[in-house]
Design brief:
The complex is a heterodimer of chains A (375) and B (114). By secondary structure, chain A is of the alpha/beta class. Chain A has helices spanning 11-21, 34-44, 60-69, 87-95, 108-149, 198-213, 222-236, 313-316, 327-337, 343-358, and strands at residues 3-7, 27-31, 48-52, 78-82, 100-103, 160-167, 175-182, 186-194, 242-250, 255-261, 267-270, 275-278, 297-301, 307-311, 367-374. Chain A has ten helices and 15 strands. In chain A, strands 2-1-3-4-5 form a five-stranded parallel β-sheet, sandwiched between helices. Chain A has a five-stranded antiparallel β-sheet with strand order 6-15-14-11-12. In chain A, helix 2 (34-44) runs parallel beside helix 3 (60-69). With 114 residues, chain B is α/β, with parallel strands linked by helices. The chains are: A alpha/beta (375), B alpha/beta (114).
Chain lengths: 375, 114
């Protein structure tokens, strides 16, 4: 049952008001002054307050101001009921956060109708809030589960030290990375980005993960993996899609073989030239759009102290207040200028620069980055 | 995003200005699908004033492509600025759709491809 608090210092007025609302099916509470109204409101948190303005000591305006100050009573709708019927009084009341203003003497039917309206609005608002909280809670649970799909530990690879950055924009997300050890000192690197974010992208991300992990023995050639994932994602993803880079790193020979499906190209830093560049990798459209039986493979020879970053576009498309994107150029410059052989420092310095650039504007997309330093 | 959809000489020209991103994409998708009601639609997406397209925007273009194909029609994009063109290159979307430099060429392309 809903509760309405009636506040008036005049007992006759209170009585009339009580009688007016008696048959509405709500529980009615009364308060004869501002102080008592505030105390009841704090204790009971009624669903609506009908508030007289002219009262000794604490007047109705002051009561309303105090109610709006406290987080416990802020959301309770307040209707002023007053003999003050000047426009400026009404405006003052509404500015203080009241939802309505009824002039005295009032028409009982009008008071009932307005009370009814505001109770309904308040009920719907609470319902929306409750659903929002439930949804957010569910997304947080999805996000926790999703983090368990990522590698728990970064493996130690003979000739490459690694660090990762992974952050979803709104609890759950579509970015995914994985590293799988294969025989003969080969390592499979997958970085993918399901279009969209939040729950729909999270489902696609989990599908990609399940398909990838379902391999009993990963093939040595990176194109085969993308062709395989794409075949299944075509049945599942539409009309969304998943961009990906899949690379096989030969830790003995320091050779990266890369296949690319609609995903940003890797960036390489060459230690001997002290230069960073985007590795030209021919590719195919993202996975999930159309089947393909060929994906180009690009072979990249790496040398000690070279660096490589593979990332999702949430990094380069991180925006600032001027709606400018961080962009590939800044990322390349950063990769070139960070002087470290520690992949964690490289990752941190890149992300610090991205965050500094965004200048407080929150990320719109999920962000993932893999930083590797060749040893 | 600002969007206008006009039908002239049997071609639907959807002009999308500003940003086609996660916020504006649902509206664009709805408007384009509505415009593609007839059979064998010829659709030109004029990106002359498109400043930015995100992956959600690419999805709208993909849906437009699939829908025009399904109905036996054709699609061409035109007048992409350098940044937008780069996004189409990197995503390889440029390999599965017709992209022209001008509206005039796009209008010719949709007749040729249908």
């Amino acid at each position: 049952m809903e509760t309405i608090l009636l506040v008036d210092d005049n007992p006759t007025n209170l009585h009339v008001l009580f009688q007016t609302l008696e048959d509405m099916g709500a529980k009615l509470l009364v308060a004869k002054n501002g102080k008592s109204a505030l105390s009841v409101a704090q204790k009971v948190r009624p669903d609506l307050i009908l508030l007289d303005i002219m009262m000794p000591e604490i007047d109705g305006f002051e009561v309303c101001r105090k109610l709006k100050e406290s987080s416990r009573t802020r959301d309770i709708p307040v209707i002023f009921l007053s003999a003050l019927d000047q426009t400026e009084d009404k405006v003052r009341g509404l500015k203080l956060g009241a939802v309505d203003y009824i002039s005295k003497p009032f028409q009982p039917d009008e008071v009932k109708a307005r009370v009814n309206t505001h109770l309904t609005i308040h009920r719907l608002k609470r319902e929306v809030q409750r659903r929002k909280e439930r949804l957010e809670h569910e997304l947080k649970v999805v996000s926790r589960v999703q983090h368990r799909l990522l590698p728990a530990k970064i493996p130690e690879i003979e000739s490459m030290k690694l660090a990762f950055f992974y952050e979803t924009s709104r609890y759950a997300g579509g970015d995914y990375f994985d590293i799988i050890k294969m025989p003969e000192n080969l390592w499979g690197f997958l970085l993918s980005d399901a279009e969209g974010h939040s729950a729909p992208a999270a489902v696609l991300m989990a599908m990609t993960c399940a398909l990838f992990r379902a391999y009993p023995q990963l093939p040595k050639e990176p194109d085969e993996v993308l062709i395989h994932l794409n075949k299944y994602l075509c049945k599942l993803a539409g009309p969304s899609f998943v961009t990906a880079i899949y690379g096989v790193f030969d830790a003995k020979k320091r050779v990266f073989k890369i296949a690319r499906a609609g995903h940003p190209q890797p960036m390489i830093y060459r230690a001997n030239e002290k230069k960073a560049f985007e590795a030209e990798c021919e590719g195919v459209v993202p996975m999930g759009i159309m089947p393909y039986d060929e994906v180009p493979v690009t072979k990249i020879n790496m040398f000690p102290e070279d660096k490589i970053i593979i990332y999702t576009d949430g990094i380069t498309e991180r925006f600032n207040k001027e709606r400018k994107a961080y962009g590939e150029k800044r990322l390349l410059n950063r990769l070139e200028s960070v002087n470290t052989q520690n992949p964690e420092d490289l990752r941190d310095e890149i992300m610090e620069d991205v965050i500094k650039f965004a200048d407080g504007v929150p990320a719109e997309d999920d962000q993932a980055l893999m930083a590797g330093v060749v040893g | 995003m600002d969007m206008t959809i006009e039908k002239k000489d049997g071609v639907i020209v959807a002009k999308i200005d500003g940003r086609l991103d996660v916020q504006s994409s649902p509206q664009a998708e709805k408007a384009i699908l509505k415009a593609l009601e007839d059979d064998e639609p010829k659709l030109v997406m004029d990106f002359g004033n498109l400043e930015y397209i995100s992956s959600a925007g690419l999805r709208v273009v993909l849906i437009a492509l699939k829908e025009t194909k399904r109905k036996g029609g054709s699609l061409a994009l035109c007048s992409l600025n350098n940044e937008v063109a780069k996004i189409f290159e990197i995503s390889n979307f440029s390999s599965i759709m017709t992209i022209t430099g001008s509206l005039k060429e796009a209008l010719e392309a949709v007749f040729r491809d249908s």
